[in-house]
Description:
This protein has 442 residues and is an alpha+beta fold. It has 19 helices and 11 strands.
Amino acid sequence: MPPxxxxxxxxxxxYNPEPGSVERSSWTRAYYTDPINTQTRAYREAGPVFKINxxxxxxxxxxxxxxxxxxxxxxxxxxxxxxxxxxxxxxxDRYLNQLEGRVYRKKRQRxxxxxxxxxxxQHTRSMSEVVVREIEKLSGDWTNLRSFCMRIIIAMTxxxxxxxxxxxxxxxxxxxxxxxxxxxHTLGMWRHxxxxxxxxxxxxxxxxxxxxxxxxxxxxxxxEQDDILSLSLNAHPKDEPPIPRQELIHDLSQLMMAGSTxxxxxxxxxxxxxxxxxxxxxxxxxxxxGWDADSFSNMGDFPRLRASCMEIERLRPPxxxxxxxxxxxxxxxxxxxxxxxxxxxxxxxxxxxxxVYDNPLxxxxxxxLRDPDLPRHDAHGLFGGGAHVCAGAPLARVLQPVAxxxxxxNYQIEFKEPPDTHACIDVVLAPRVPYIVxxxxx
Length: 442
């Protein structure tokens, strides 16, 4: 069969989730309110590539398995410094996420030197102890589950990253700061005013000052330690100039806070769906009876825990799409996407396609027990793909199971109101309404 004729960009259909509406914000409003149904409906009605009006601008959207293969298959298609300029603007031109090519690969190798599972597993006990300690501090009082999960990710990460307990309040400060940092990307040109918020500036100074004190202590006492920071510092070639202190602080802040807005939500959704799905909750608790973080050496020993984590990665992926800028013309599905064109890559779309997963909108962790070949790599988009796959993925896949197991094995979760599992975009895929909960000892 001859290839489909190449279409000009102007002939790509404009998809409007609100038929008849002429507002340029219609896609943004629909997507942020109901992202899962909006993206799947667009795919069914418009196909794997279409135009949308997003945040006031016309961009190309692409999603599905072939879109993932194209987007992840050749990293030279994309201009990372421009599409990720909000990282450079808030840190510097040495921040990892906006680098590309050899410079990116070299720095990524250093920054992630401590992300080996064998090293991370050495800290599962202290991570688990942090979770229990933070729950006990609540003394049975009601708390916002989203805020709690964001804080414990910071506290857990500090153990594997630096082997320290944070000063009081620092976990909350870091969690808010990281969420605000990521929010800038959704504001278009208004982000430059966002950067000037006094509370944002205050938090960053407080965080950077604390991280600088950690680096000072490492310089005064350069003892070899089995943590991410030490391994990252030691990965810097000895024959190269020292890394500037500001760059080290920015790198440390990235390692410290990255999961507080993303991985925290996989913990939140896992706790919620497990708590309200009685049959699954019973099976999971059977596996977690007598849970001891010291016994957690690999996910293979806890197949139900793994299945629960993988199902949440699929059903509630924190990151739903990436904005990309084409560096050269891209041929996709008979369409030529010109260079310097903004593309919304909906990398999580495959999670919700019935041709990939049966009953994709249902919480069914057993699917990962029935089929050991799941998830499909071309469909599972939580961490992206290709050379720019999320650098923190190994840590995220330790933090979620340790937190979930430590909580469910020790506590019952009581919800102040019956939990509504509908999701919206609030920087990441988040609950539409707050979950106010309290933890009761089993």
